[in-house]
Design a protein that fits this description.
Structural class: alpha+beta
Number of helices: 2
Largest sheet: 5 strands, antiparallel
Radius of gyration: 14 Å
Strand content: 25-35%
Helix content: 10-25%
């Protein structure tokens, strides 16, 4: 059975908190894997291209990035969903691009946000494997948007 979680909306306190890191004993745990599955289902159900744990009322540093074309983002490039635990943007290009963003926590509002075009992210898998990966364009934008959620920042604060 797929679990669809409620999504916190602008104005709710959870969205202003700096999320806590996932700790070592939580890696590979059933609850972390279940949270990841439920977040992914919730994101797909709402036509999102990314989601952060604080958006589903869990103040933990976990995001899912899943660029793909859908009614909200018809031109999004296709990529496999990536679950990032404790993601950290360790490098950003000096070159920034303006692009339209929306948010599951700020329904029916879009805005132009400036983001680095290329980033390098260090994160862990659900099993605690450390990964360092480069992203450009729209996937890089999604990651920056979702990492902002982990730091208590909504995209509308960047417009």
């Amino acid at each position: 059975m797929t679990t669809i979680l409620p999504v916190a909306q602008r104005g709710e306190a959870i969205l202003n908190l700096v999320a806590a890191p996932v700790i070592e004993t939580e890696f590979s745990s059933c609850w972390l894997k279940e949270l990841s599955r439920a977040m992914h289902s919730t994101m797909l159900e709402r036509n999102g291209v990314g989601i952060a744990a604080p958006q589903v009322y869990i103040s933990k540093r976990m995001i899912i990035v899943a660029s793909r074309a859908n009614p909200r983002y018809p031109d999004a490039p296709e990529m496999d969903a990536i679950v990032m635990v404790n993601p950290e943007i360790i490098q950003k290009s000096a070159h920034v691009i303006l692009g339209e963003e929306g948010c599951l926590s700020v329904p029916n509002e879009r805005g132009q946000v400036e983001r680095a075009e290329q980033i390098t992210v260090q994160y862990f898998t659900l099993d605690g494997e450390k990964i360092t990966q480069d992203f450009t364009g729209f996937p890089a934008r999604i990651i920056q948007h979702e990492v902002d959620h982990l730091d208590g920042i909504l995209f509308i604060e960047r417009i």
